[in-house]
Design a protein that fits this description.
Elements: E1 12-17, H1 21-27, E2 36-40, E3 45-47, E4 52-54, E5 62-63, E6 66-72, E7 88-95, E8 98-99, H2 100-105, E9 121-129, E10 140-145, E11 148-154, H3 162-170, E12 179-182, E13 204-209, E14 213-223, E15 226-228
Parallel strand pairs: 1-12, 3-9, 4-14
Antiparallel strand pairs: 1-2, 5-8, 6-7, 6-12, 7-9, 10-11, 10-13, 13-14, 14-15
């Protein structure tokens, strides 16, 4: 399990797919009626300054996704939208690193495997207390790849707000302290671009969110029997 660099141990990681209006539009998919939920294992977590490792079994179709991460601070079950934010410990940046070949071609229609490889859930650089962000649905969010801005949006473009997501996930299910919720990514991801822009060894990717800071990771390639380190 990942260390406690942010002051908590990730207990479970829930993620919301297709949760920004403009992102749904760029993928050509309809806006969902209910939140699309998948998960990542805690073993996928790395922190600011640690490497994103491209597994040898995924080829060259690995993508970035800037996301706001919510961390639950006390047990939450059957909570209403109105009280949902009372259960939040804090917020941090996340990168929902994704293997598109396993998500779209080989994964059997589900996303968990494609997004759950080791190092595919960078978090950081710090956990900002919930009291410092009274409205998580009004934050600038961006992704910078090798110095170029690839994603630039605001969390107000979410289809399902942070309170709605927490309430939805807590119905008949206890969200334990340390539960992390990735709330979706805005438009500008790499695979719909023409040509696609995908992560490769030597890249440097930064997720920036207003009031939180910048999460930066270098990208390296995994080789059978070892790791090929990046030059950055």
């Amino acid at each position: 399990m990942a260390s406690t660099r942010l002051g908590f141990t990730p207990r479970a990681i829930f993620c919301v797919g297709l949760n920004y209006k403009k992102h749904a539009k760029e993928t050509g998919m309809p806006e969902p009626e209910y939140p699309i939920i998948f998960s990542k294992p805690p073993s996928a977590v790395v922190y600011n300054g640690q490497d994103i490792v491209i597994p040898h079994i995924v080829g060259d179709e690995v993508d970035y996704e800037a996301e706001l991460a919510v961390v639950i601070g006390r047990p939450a079950k059957n909570v209403s939208e109105e009280e949902a934010l009372d259960y939040v410990m804090g917020y941090t940046c996340a990168n929902d690193v994704s293997s598109r070949i396993w998500q779209l071609k080989k994964g059997g229609g589900q996303w968990t495997y494609s997004k759950g490889f080791d190092s595919f859930c960078p978090l950081g650089p710090r956990l900002v207390p919930a009291s410092e962000i009274p409205d998580p649905n009004d934050l600038q969010i961006s992704c910078i790849l090798n110095g170029k801005t690839m994603q630039s949006s605001n969390t107000k473009d979410m289809i399902f707000s942070v309170p709605k997501i927490i309430s939805f996930l807590s119905q008949s299910t206890t969200l334990e302290p340390g539960t992390v919720i990735l709330t979706g990514t805005p438009e500008g991801v790499g695979y719909p671009r023409k040509p696609p822009v995908l992560l490769k060894a030597g890249d440097k990717v930064t997720i920036s969110i207003e009031k939180i800071g910048e999460l930066t990771n270098n990208v390296v390639s995994e080789e059978k029997g070892g790791i090929a380190k990046s030059k950055l």
